[in-house]
Structure formats: C-alpha cells, structure tokens
Amino acid sequence: MHAHRRTPHAHDAPAVGPRALRLRYAAIGSFMAFTWIGEGNAPAWEHALRTLVILLILPPLLLRTNRRLTQELYETTRPTRVIAQLVTARIVIIAAAFGTSALVGHLLDPHTGRSPVVPAAGLVLLLLSIPVQVRRAHRTRADRSHPSTRPTLSAPRLIVAKLALIIAALLAQLLLGAYVDNATYVVAAAIAITATVLGPAVHGWLLVAQAPAPEREPVGDAA
Hints:
globular
C-alpha cells in the first residue's frame, strides 16, 4: 500500500502538447467522417440530421459522465471497479447515440436497405479501444493534479463548433451532389481534414474551468 498523491493547485495541471492535440482532433475528425460515411447514399439533409442526433447525445452525456468518473477514479482506493465503470459507460453512451441515429434513419426511410458493415466495424473499433482507455485511465490516476483542477471541454461550445461543421458539410454535399458521384466520401474527407486543421486552433475556446474540488486527505491505494 502506498500513499496517493496530494490534491494540487490549478497551476500544477499539465497542458496537452501540440502533437497530442493534433492527434486528438485527427481522431475526432476521423470519427465524424466515419459517421458521415456510415449513412451511405442517404440525402444530404438525412446525413446532417443523423449526425446532429449523435452530436446532441454524445457531448452532454459523455463529457459529464467522464468528468464524474474520472474524479472518482482519482480518489478511490479501488481503481479497477471505477475504470470498469468508466469504460462501460463510454461504450454504452456511444452505442446508444449511434443506435438512436440508426433508428432515426429507419424512421425517415424505412424501405432503404442499410449495410451492417459500417456499424459492425464501428463496434469492433470501439471494443478494440478498451485497452487504450484502460491505459489512459491509469495515467490519469497517476497524475499529480486532481481532475477538478484541469480545464474541461464545454458541451455547449463543443456542440456549437461541431454544428457549424455539420452545416458546412451539408451545404458542401448539396453543392457537390450535382457534380460529383461520390460526394459523401468527398465531404467526409473534408470533415476529417477540417477537424484536424482547425480543431487545435479553437481548442482553447472549447475549454472551461471547473469549480475546484474540496481538499481531501490523501487516499491510499488498495494493496
């Protein structure tokens, strides 16, 4: 058994490096592009609507759950249980968002056959990310700064930023649809590139400070 770290002040919180930030937004852009492609040859407005459904579900639920469980992970003496809760919650929320999006697509156009390949691939990728999530959770717990001292993403600001990107993608697909056969893939690539390039530039605006957590006595890890 060894002593847990102290609860530090806000100036102890580490900043995300430029390279890590670029990789993070490249992953977000790829995720959004994957979502856009997953809707197949549906009309552009349906692409936008289904992506909007995912957008309105994921940030509010995922960010709040992640913040609460990350703070609990930092303080608990039983990290394995909290890490399992954290990973499970993420998978359930993401699956629920995509499931709701698929349901919306079915209700809008119940007669269109949709390939299960893309949703299945998305589920496989999500499950393959579990080891990465577990490793990052352990790194978070090992950090000297309490999660409540670190700035966090604002769900409303994130929704506004992604909504602007979705509207731009919708307009682009409407314009390209008359001239390009595979406008969906062109727009998806543009989404990924835009998020990768502009994401780090607006990252600071997306962050908000959290209310500081009350000081706690050091917590010992379970043997």
